[in-house]
Amino acid sequence: MTSGTTDRPKAGHVLRYVYLFAEEAARGRDEGVKERFVVVAGVEGRMYRVAAITTKGEGRAGTLLLPAPVASAAGVAPGSSIVVSEFNRFTWPGFDIRPLTKDAGYIAGRLPPRFTNTVIDALVGAAAVDRD
């Protein structure tokens, strides 16, 4: 599957999404502050789990640094990290998913399968923020 397709994303695909962090939800927000890249970390039927990708996570607890070649291949900024202390859960397609451009689909890139498995393993026990 190539970037820009309209197929349903699978684990490891990178999407644009308005991610709601747990701390934002605890303060009463019902929508995230901005669009950001997320990685699909699980799919069960139409139920999706996504983890935020941030450019401000390097060295912070609860994040997993994307190696430069992985970030480049996935189409995200070098030095980006994945937040593995929490994830958003929603029913596809949800209200917060954003197309790349008009008629371009949702998939911006993809993490390699081995690194995707590392992300999924790191999310075991992470806090869920329900978005439905």
Polypeptide structure, described:
- It is a single chain.
- The chain has 132 residues and is of the alpha+beta class.
- Helices cover 17% and strands 35% of the residues.
- The protein has 3 helices and 9 strands.
- Strands 1, 2, 3, 4, 5, 6, 7, 8 and 9 form a 9-stranded mixed β-sheet that branches.
- A hairpin with a 2-residue loop joins strand 2 and strand 3 (47-54).
- The longest helix is centred in the last third of the chain and has 10 residues, at 113-122.
- 33% of the residues are buried.
Compile the SSE list and pairings.
Layout: E1 13-18, H1 22-26, E2 35-44, E3 47-54, E4 63-65, H2 68-74, E5 81-83, E6 86-91, E7 97-98, E8 107-110, H3 113-122, E9 127-130
Parallel strand pairs: 6-9
Antiparallel strand pairs: 1-2, 1-7, 1-8, 2-3, 3-5, 3-6, 4-5
Strand content: 25-35%
What shape does the CA trace take? globular
Total E-strand runs: 9
Largest sheet: 9 strands, mixed
Helix-strand topology string: EHEEEHEEEEHE
Distance between the termini: 27 Å
Q: What's the Cα radius of gyration?
A: 13 Å
Quickly give the structural class.
alpha+beta
Count of alpha/pi helices? 3
Mean pLDDT: 92
Helix content: 10-25%
Poorly predicted tracts of residues = none
What are the defining features of this structure?
single chain; 132 residues; 3 helices; 9 strands
